[in-house]
Amino acid sequence: MNSAWLGRLLRGVSAGERKLVWSDPALAGVPETLRLSSAAFAAEGPIPVRFAGRGVGDNVSPPLAWSGVLVAAAELVLLMEDPDAPLPTPFVHLIAYRIPPTFFGFEAGDLSSRRGATIFGRNTGGGSGYAGPRALRGHGPHRYHFSLYALDRPSGLAPGAALSAVRSTLRSHAIARGRLVGAFEQAAD
User: What is the 3-state secondary structure (H, E, C) of 134-186?
Assistant: First the structure.
């Protein structure tokens, strides 16, 4: 089946932002004091094709930088979700945790494979590590939400944790958060 045809057929169908971890009512009171940015794309701007998923781009994670981490932070958690995917819940492209609070970012490609103390959870595709944007051709622009959370204690999450376990930890222990949104689209040809 032609993926552009399928993308056009499903245009307007999406999980929606209200289902993002960021939008969880239990996290509404967590202060947005972390500032997350990328040297590869501006906030709300297009994510370069190099950072797109396999078969579309090089599946290299973009560089990310942040500031505003509280002294009380014990661990950082980073998520990347696509609320525009035509699924019941946002497509999870990345779950990374056990990020030391002394880190101030990742270089391009650092999240494409395990580096240092960082541990990966399971993404929607069943893998771990970064899975770049691969929106259906013709489905329209997708927004990719990178969200960073500071925890008041180590998460204790095992490698390969599911989003539900990560969300539960964030609900109980997030003390600060920040996000960066980028866009990616595959034209219908």
Answer: CCCCCCCCEEEEEEEEEECCCCCCCCCCCHHHHHHHHHHHEEEEEEEEEEECC
